[in-house]
């Protein structure tokens, strides 16, 4: 089912929660709405679900205007963070509940439950009540309850946020696998950019109710539309330094150093952005500038270094190989590859990626 949002605005009194949002979610796509707390993700999802009515704009499901249609008329399933399972019912009863009295035969209900349970790996738990299941198993029952309904659209609002980190990672993979199998149009809400990046066909980034960019994970990472997206996507975050472009020398100049500019810059340059993983640490005296290590974080597969740039009261972060060890107080050189810089103008729009 293709979903089209056309110029959707939602106001709560004076507050604009969602501002003039237009976007098409393709049939069968896994699209994630991501952004900081309060950016309008849940409000957008609730309007798609029919739980809120847009103040302005229209919503189409498969070419049908559903802007004012009730949730029941939209053939969708909604999974919330706080998945409300009935504690006095078994997992099987919780899953069949949504289908009772819908005209689906008992036999078909049981068949769907068994098939879904085996897809989710909970076939051994169907006769247990939720309180005797782990958080991850309960979450799977809640998902299963939605899947058996065979909806046209899945709406998921932070469904993994109650789970511990390890379980969250494995559920992410399971959800991806599940989506590959059932191919249902899925809209997923999270504030976690890593979750968004690892699971989605496309990611829609919101800030203050405004859509910033919607594209594949690869594109939002490598070609962020603006400084907000550049800083929000990627961990650790992109480093930003004030800078200007000097046409005569073909260099980018910060208050402390200049580096060769990439070719093909157009427009005014106000900010230089470099991802931590794109900085190269070289011996002191080499590279584009020198810096002092202030913090060294040993992660394992890679390490994180916080550096104070000489002559500039600015700290930047570099990500280095797990085998590289440095200590606070060490002085190093830092090299910037002109091919890997991102440049933003005074409006924070990208002028070079
Ligand atoms: P979070 O990640 O914290 O859930 P979110 O991105 O989902 O945030 P929304 O819940 O959509 O954000 O909220 C967007 C804005 O609208 C917030 O400022 C919020 O306070 C406001 N808001 C949401 N629902 C209502 C409501 N029913 N009445 C008034 N204001 C609301």
TrEMBL record:
Record-level GO BP terms: carbohydrate transport
Subcellular location: Cell membrane
EC number: 7.5.2.13
Keyword terms, alphabetized: ATP-binding, Nucleotide-binding, Transport
Principal location: membrane
Catalytic activity: L-arabinose(out) + ATP + H2O = L-arabinose(in) + ADP + phosphate + H(+); D-xylose(out) + ATP + H2O = D-xylose(in) + ADP + phosphate + H(+)
Keyword Phosphoprotein: no
Single GO cellular component term: ATP-binding cassette (ABC) transporter complex, substrate-binding subunit-containing
Membrane-topology annotation of the record: Peripheral membrane protein
Protein purpose: Part of the ABC transporter complex XacGHIJK involved in the uptake of xylose and arabinose. Responsible for energy coupling to the transport system.
Assigned protein family: Belongs to the ABC transporter superfamily. Carbohydrate uptake transporter-1 (CUT1) (TC 3.A.1.1) family.
Annotated protein name in UniProt: ABC-type D-xylose/L-arabinose transporter
Taxonomic lineage from the root: Archaea, Methanobacteriati, Methanobacteriota, Stenosarchaea group, Halobacteria
């Amino acid at each position: 089912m293709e979903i089209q949002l056309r110029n959707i605005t939602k106001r709560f009194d004076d507050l604009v929660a969602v501002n003039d949002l237009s976007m098409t979610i393709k049939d069968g796509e896994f699209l994630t709405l991501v952004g900081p707390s309060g950016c309008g993700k849940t409000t957008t999802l609730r309007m798609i679900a029919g739980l809120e009515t847009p103040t302005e704009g229209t919503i189409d499901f498969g070419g049908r205007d559903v802007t004012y249609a009730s949730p029941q008329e939209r053939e969708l399933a909604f999974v919330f963070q706080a998945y409300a399972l009935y504690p006095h019912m078994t997992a099987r009863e919780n899953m069949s509940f949504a289908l009772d009295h819908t005209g689906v035969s008992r036999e078909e209900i049981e068949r769907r439950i068994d098939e879904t349970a085996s897809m989710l790996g909970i076939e051994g738990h169907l006769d247990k009540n939720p309180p005797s299941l782990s958080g991850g198993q309960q979450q799977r029952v809640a998902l299963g309850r939605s899947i058996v309904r065979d909806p046209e659209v899945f709406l998921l609002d932070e469904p993994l946020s109650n789970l511990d980190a390890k379980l969250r990672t494995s559920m992410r993979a399971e959800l991806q696998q599940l989506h590959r199998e059932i191919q249902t149009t899925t809209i997923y809400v999270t504030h976690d950019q890593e979750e968004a990046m690892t699971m989605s066909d496309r990611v829609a980034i919101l800030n203050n109710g405004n859509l910033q960019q919607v594209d594949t994970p690869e594109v939002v990472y490598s070609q962020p539309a603006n400084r907000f997206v550049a800083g929000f996507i990627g961990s650790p975050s992109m480093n930003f330094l004030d800078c200007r472009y000097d046409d005569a020398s073909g260099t980018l100049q910060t208050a402390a150093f200049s580096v060769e500019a990439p070719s093909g810059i157009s427009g005014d340059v106000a900010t230089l952005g470099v991802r931590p993983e794109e900085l190269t640490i070289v011996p002191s005296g080499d590279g584009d500038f020198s810096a002092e290590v202030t913090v060294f974080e040993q992660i394992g597969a890679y390490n994180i270094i916080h550096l104070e740039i000489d002559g500039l009261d600015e700290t930047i972060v570099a990500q280095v190989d797990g085998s590289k060890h440095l200590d606070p107080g060490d002085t190093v050189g830092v090299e910037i590859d002109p091919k890997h810089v991102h440049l933003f103008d005074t409006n924070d729009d990208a002028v070079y990626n």
